[in-house]
Specification:
The protein is of the alpha+beta class. The chain has helices at about 45-55, 65, 80-90, 115-120; strands at about 1-15, 25, 30, 35, 95-105, 130-135, 145-155. A hairpin with a 2-residue loop joins strand 2 (about 25) and strand 3 (about 30). The structure holds zinc ion. Zinc ion binds next to strand 1 and helix 1.
Length: about 160
């Protein structure tokens, strides 16, 4: 049995939205909290960090290499598509995900109340236990940002076993 661990990290600055219908994407779940991420794609830091953790575990190029932010194709793009690409590479490589552990650091919105919806959405892409915990920036100068840390453990059996 071969095992790999991958770490993913992402940060996006948040700004107070002038539009009433603005949403902040967290793990593919749209949150109406008056904030929006400053980003080229849909700014879903959680999706980006999970995608990078998986790609990193299996030794594939990172999200910024596969989907450059200067490519017009990636503008406002649904970050679920990045995760689907990572999952395709996981499957092609014969890997199975053991678990994914996620820490979201932001002051608003409160992650605790969103945990279930985010996990449920991630289960559309990942068939493995996913854990999410929320932390705040504790009043430091990173308050205007959302940060996500992810570790993912993967395994694959030896074909000749
Ligand atoms: Zn990102």
């Amino acid at each position: 049995m071969e095992m790999r661990i991958g770490h993913g990290y992402d940060l996006h600055r948040l700004e107070i939205s002038k539009e009433n219908d603005a949403i902040l994407m967290i793990g593919g779940f749209g949150v109406h909290c008056g904030l929006q991420a400053i980003a080229h794609s849909d700014g879903d830091a959680l999706m980006h960090a999970v995608t990078d953790a998986l790609l990193s575990a299996i030794g594939e190029p990172d999200i910024g290499t596969l989907f450059p932010d200067n490519d017009p194709k990636n503008e406002n793009r649904d970050s679920g598509e990045f995760l689907i690409e990572a999952m395709d590479r996981v499957n092609v490589g014969g890997w199975a995900i053991c678990n994914v552990d996620i820490t979201v650091v932001c002051d608003q919105p409160k992650i605790g109340s969103l945990r279930e919806q985010i996990c449920e959405n991630l289960r559309r892409y990942i068939v493995a236990p996913v854990n999410i915990k929320g932390k705040t920036h504790e009043g430091t100068d990173r308050c205007g940002a959302i940060e996500v840390h992810v570790v993912a453990l993967l395994q694959r059996g030896n074909k000749h076993e």
